[in-house]
Design a protein that fits this description.
- The complex is a heterodimer of chains A (294) and B (246).
- Chain A has 294 residues and is of the alpha+beta class.
- Chain A has two domains: 15-50 and 158-291, no CATH class; 63-145, no CATH class.
- Chain A has helices at 15-55, 67-83, 95-106, 110-115, 130-143, 153-195, 197-205, 210-245, 262-292, and strands spanning 56-61, 87-92, 120-126, 147-150.
- In chain A, helix 1 runs antiparallel to helix 9 and helix 6 runs parallel beside helix 9 (262-292).
- In chain B, helix 3 (104-114) crosses helix 4.
- Chain B has 246 residues and is of the alpha/beta class.
- The N and C termini of chain B lie far apart (40 Å).
- A six-stranded mixed β-sheet of chain B has the order 6-7-8-3-9-10, with helices on both faces. Chain B has a four-stranded antiparallel β-sheet with strand order 2-1-4-5, with helices on one face.
- Chain B is globular.
- The chains are: A alpha+beta (294), B alpha/beta (246).
- Chain A binds chain B through residues 1-2, 4, 6-7, 9-12, 199, 202-210, 212, 290, 293-294, and chain B through 57, 59, 61, 79-80, 82-89, 91, 97, 99-103, 105-106, 109-111, 113-115, 119, 122-123, 139-140.
- Bound molecules: adenosine-5'-triphosphate and magnesium ion (MG).
- Magnesium ion (MG) binds at residues 49-50, 94, 170 of chain B.
């Protein structure tokens, strides 16, 4: 006689409910991973843009009345910039190029352009951090009052709003997905308890504590959710890998997807879903068991 | 009347139980059972034997009257107390209620699993009991593959595996022939000897008359105590029974 392990399952759970949970959680986990990856990408893109925006900027020299002063100020400014640590390149933009740059702001007319005294523009590239840049701006202002650093503050702010709202949106969707998962586990636990009512009642009559009974359901659902969410996570990972990153063998604009450390975020999702489903199914079954007793 | 409720196993006073329609199934019955007693519950079909047992294993709450189990007021029991109490009650259900997806061995071991016994303990005890009821060869069979009488014996083994303080058996000999019925009765007597209070609902007159234990007779919702014959079974008779029957 073959000897099998005692009590692999005390309650036999409905297979179709198990499949239902696996399929729905894999879809939800796929979406959750997508929204998480999207959030990470957006945030990294933002940091990248911020860095780029900060590291190239214009210094404007406001025109003085006397020509000689202008030249002196220009030289002083160039000298100061070149002697600053972290400044990589300084280039005075030729008048024509500057005009072309300013044209859209001042009107298309060549004649009217000439009427303005236009500022001299210096294109600066640095590898300074945001804080160091602020310091540079401040000390430049102290020495040379006619010099204006036209850092891309406005752009940075816009970018921050833009990426902030995208991040919020993906976080919100993530939250909705978790809510969806909770509803699924809740419904499935409830269905299971109702389907097994006959055996649950028998266990109760044998004096089984509620914890003992609800453990039979928790085990089942946590297991199904782990399977489902792992499938979803793997699908999402390969989806990003094959369709978004390596399109035609080239890295596309989504170059911030699937960095090395994302593995940890992605692995965190099944674990998190596992905990969530454990808690939800436990609360649900315990509640139902308590309701069932008169 | 017994004054000291604490010492009773069952104390019921003027208990009434009705189902949906207000016709009482048990009508103001009073009952006092002391520890280690052995009783039959008799009565025609539909007289309320199962209902009485349901009340005793705390499934059915009395609608009126006073009911104490193990000296404790039924109405004051909390759920954990009820669970603890049920762990000390063995029940053989009239319809067996075996779990269909568990083997005979697992079904028998389930009460031990519930009280958290160790695996090897469960296994040895369940095997021993199955052997006692003559089902050693069927221990890995699932209930659907067992005959009615075999299922009944599995149900009996399950009810007594924890050596409960109170054993409630509803028609435990309903599906077996007389030889096995007598074996089962002897098993209950063994259990009774080590201190279990036993209540057997049956309409098997042969068994009731063969084992002259007091009888609680249900009729039209009323309970009549009859034939309070204390049958002193000879010790060597029991010894022989044990040796020859099991
Ligand atoms: N859950 C229930 N709801 C309504 N009526 C019930 C319920 N259970 C039992 N009854 C009724 O109560 C009466 C007594 O039933 P019970 O099962 O206690 O009889 P019994 O003495 O065990 O009969 P039997 O010898 O056939 O097993 C029956 O008339 C039955 O119809
Ligand atoms: Mg009955």
């Amino acid at each position: 006689m073959s000897q099998k392990k005692l009590f692999s399952n005390i309650l036999i759970q409905d297979k179709s409910i198990g499949r239902f949970v696996i399929i729905l959680t894999s879809i939800l986990s796929f979406l959750a991973c997508c929204s998480l990856l999207f959030l990470l990408n957006t945030h990294r893109q933002y940091l990248d843009w911020q860095k780029v925006l900060n590291q190239t900027f214009f210094v404007e020299l406001m025109p003085e009345s006397k020509k000689e002063d202008d030249l002196a100020i220009l030289n002083q400014t160039l000298q100061f910039l070149q002697n600053t640590k972290g400044v990589l390149a300084v280039r005075v933009i030729p008048e024509e190029e500057a005009n072309a740059l300013l044209k859209p702001w001042l009107g298309a007319d060549e004649e009217s352009l000439k009427r303005y005294k236009l500022p001299v523009l210096i294109d600066v590239t640095t590898n300074l951090s945001v804080d160091d840049l602020k310091k540079l701006e401040y000390s430049l202002k102290q020495r040379l009052p006619f010099v204006k650093v036209s850092a891309n503050d406005a752009w940075t702010k816009q970018m921050s709003h833009y990426s902030g709202s995208l991040e919020f949106l993906s976080l919100f969707i993530f939250g909705l997905i978790l809510l969806g998962l909770m509803i699924i586990v809740l419904t499935a636990s409830k269905m299971s308890v109702v389907l097994q009512r006959h055996y649950v009642d028998l266990l109760k009559l044998m004096g089984a504590p509620y914890r003992f009974i609800s453990r039979q359901f928790e085990k089942f659902f946590t297991f199904k959710v782990v399977i489902g969410s792992s499938i979803g996570m793997l699908l999402a990972t390969s989806f990003f890998h094959f369709f978004l990153i390596l399109q035609d063998g080239q890295i596309t604009i989504m170059r911030h997807f699937l960095m090395y450390e994302d593995v940890f975020y992605l692995l965190a999702i099944p674990i998190f879903l596992l905990l969530l489903s454990y808690v939800v199914s436990r609360i649900t079954t315990m509640h139902l068991l308590k309701l069932g007793h008169s | 009347m017994v004054k000291d409720f604490k010492k009773t196993i069952v104390y019921a006073d003027q208990v009434t139980i009705c189902y949906q329609d207000n016709k009482p199934i048990l009508d103001q019955i009073s009952l006092t059972l002391m520890p280690k007693s052995f009783h039959f519950v008799t009565g025609s079909s539909g007289s309320g034997k199962t209902t009485l047992l349901k009340m005793l294993y705390l499934e059915q709450k009395p609608d009126r009257g006073r009911f104490l189990l193990f000296g404790q007021d039924r109405y004051k029991l909390t759920m954990p107390e009820i669970q603890k109490m049920r762990q000390h009650i063995g029940v053989v259900f009239q319809d067996f209620r075996l779990l269909p997806h568990l083997t005979a061995l697992e079904n028998v071991a389930l009460p031990l699993k519930i009280i958290g016994a160790k695996n090897h303990e469960m296994e040895t005890q369940a095997k021993e009991l199955l052997d006692w009821v003559g089902l050693a060869h069927q221990m890995n069979a699932y209930p659907h593959a067992l005959s009615g009488g075999e299922q009944q014996r599995v149900a009996i083994a399950r009810a007594i595996i924890t050596k409960p303080d109170l054993l409630l058996a509803d028609e435990p000999t309903g599906n077996v022939d007389d030889v096995i019925a007598v074996k089962i009765m002897h098993l209950f007597e063994e259990l009774n000897k080590i201190g279990t209070t036993i209540i057997i609902a049956t309409h098997n007159e042969a068994v009731v008359s063969r084992f002259a234990y007091p009888r609680l007779h249900l009729e039209k919702g009323k309970l009549l105590e009859m034939g309070n014959v204390t049958n002193k079974i000879e010790d060597d008779y029991l010894y022989v029974a044990k040796k020859t029957l099991f």
